[in-house]
């Protein structure tokens, strides 16, 4: 598979940051950790990986702007292009020694996501996509699952975070979904959840309360693997609205309907 020059820049940056995360994951008990809010941790590993990504992406393409979890927005001279980056998606897993975390890099051009990399260094799984060029896991072309019935489906979700609301609504959604599906999973890295939907490992995924860097790359992975992505109302406000529903066409539609259904006591 021939990668474009820009995707190569993104892959090289992700691999370098991935080596840093892998080293820190091996000595996780020695990392300095601080609290950004209730239950919201950031470590030296997040910051080191972000520094590497900022340096490598800046070197690869001068002047592009950034939106990064720890740095926030950094304006560039080129206002047509912006990197949307999460240096460590799944910090809670990482700090607990659970090898389910990822680096997420999306390139936005004139408001459209055109290239995406999600990399899980612990499993050495590299997910890439370019707009119109398909999605890949390492060198293998990806396709969302072909399952069409919720009763056969494994659905990923996120659990609302401490102090951020949505808890009551989540319980209603969960109750609706768990009564219909084969299984529910909670990985703890939204970027990987979306990559797993793209890979057909999970048939669908929903979460609320997310930030643009959690989902920007994963959205393109799912679309380029033939899947559907929307916010929880069926619109396209995923980056700023914070809610996301993904799946193949049939599961995506069924999941939106099931999430919204008024709960009937059972
Ligand atoms: P993070 O690990 O980069 O913070 C899991 O539910 C998803 O929510 C992950 O993408 C995770 O990203 C994000 N997340 C974890 N803790 C969070 C918090 N306190 N507030 C908002 N998002 C959070
Ligand atoms: Ca975080
Ligand atoms: Ca994140
Ligand atoms: Ca993060």
From TrEMBL:
Stretches of the chain forming a coiled coil according to its record: none
A single BP term in Gene Ontology: phosphatidylinositol phosphate biosynthetic process
EC number: 3.1.3.25
GO-annotated molecular function: inositol monophosphate 1-phosphatase activity; metal ion binding
Cofactor: Mg(2+)
Entry binding sites for Mg(2+): 69, 86, 88-89, 214
Record field: catalytic activity: a myo-inositol phosphate + H2O = myo-inositol + phosphate
Record keywords, A-Z: Hydrolase, Magnesium, Metal-binding
Pfam families attached to this UniProt entry: Inositol_P
InterPro entries attached to this UniProt entry: IMPase, Inositol_monoP_metal-BS, Inositol_monophosphatase-like, Inositol_monophosphatase_CS, Inositol_monophosphatase_SuhB
PROSITE patterns the record matches: IMP_1, IMP_2
PANTHER family linked to this entry: INOSITOL MONOPHOSPHATASE, INOSITOL-1-MONOPHOSPHATASE-RELATED
Family statement drawn from the similarity comment of this UniProt entry: Belongs to the inositol monophosphatase superfamily.
Protein name: Inositol-1-monophosphatase
Organism of derivation: Aminobacter anthyllidis
Organism classification: Bacteria, Pseudomonadati, Pseudomonadota, Alphaproteobacteria, Hyphomicrobiales
């Amino acid at each position: 598979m021939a990668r474009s020059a820009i995707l190569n820049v993104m892959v090289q940056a992700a691999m370098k940051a991935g080596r840093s995360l892998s080293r820190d994951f091996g000595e996780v008990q020695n990392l300095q950790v601080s609290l950004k809010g209730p239950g919201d941790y950031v470590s030296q590993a997040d910051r080191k990986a972000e520094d590497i990504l900022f340096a490598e992406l800046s070197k690869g393409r001068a002047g592009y702007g950034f939106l990064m979890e720890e740095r926030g927005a950094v304006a560039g001279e080129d206002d047509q292009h912006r990197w949307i980056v999460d240096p460590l998606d799944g910090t809670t897993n990482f700090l607990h020694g659970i090898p389910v975390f990822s680096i997420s890099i999306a390139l936005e051009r004139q408001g459209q996501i055109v290239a995406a990399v999600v990399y899980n260094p612990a499993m050495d799984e590299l997910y890439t996509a370019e707009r119109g060029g398909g999605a890949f896991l390492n060198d293998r072309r990806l396709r969302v699952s072909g399952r069409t019935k919720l009763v056969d489906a494994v659905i990923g979700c996120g659990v609302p975070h401490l102090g951020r609301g949505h808890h009551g609504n989540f319980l209603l959604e969960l109750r609706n979904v768990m009564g219909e599906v084969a299984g529910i999973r909670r990985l703890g890295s939204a970027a990987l959840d979306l990559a797993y939907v793209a890979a057909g490992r999970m048939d669908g995924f929903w979460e609320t309360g997310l930030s643009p860097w959690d989902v920007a790359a994963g959205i393109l992975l799912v679309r380029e693997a033939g899947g559907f992505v929307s916010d929880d109302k069926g619109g396209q406000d995923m980056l700023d609205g914070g809610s996301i529903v993904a799946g193949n066409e049939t599961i995506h539609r069924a999941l939106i309907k099931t999430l919204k259904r008024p709960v009937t006591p059972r």
